[in-house]
Request: fold
Amino acid sequence: MTDPILKPVIALVLWSFVMWAWLYATRIPAITRLKIAYDPRRPASEFADAIPPEVRWKADNYNHLMEQPTLFYAIALTLALLGHGGGLNLWLAWAYVGLRVVHSLVQATANVIMARFSIFMVASLVLLALAVRAAMLVF
Reply:
């Protein structure tokens, strides 16, 4: 039988692919519509600056899903290996995933910085709680 904490792990991985699809579903039409040509000799920032902000937000969020969530994966997998992926740890894992999904939706649509930052901070505290709980088991 698999540890229940693997469900939020897989959910966040799948959500990352949702954001990946959304970024390309908006980026490719924008590049085509605006006739943006990528020149590898120019700084990548020039290419990014040519893309409308509302389109860039999706790519920015996808990149964010490749950053801090890697810590979540490591902690959740550690808890699963230790056989402690249920109970409060499972609730914290689902809370983290839910907060990251909300963060994605805020960033990809309205991109209200203070709302995004608040969600990020709460998610970070949830992740810290998971990390401390894992540390208490390991040390």
Summary: The chain has one domain: 6-138.
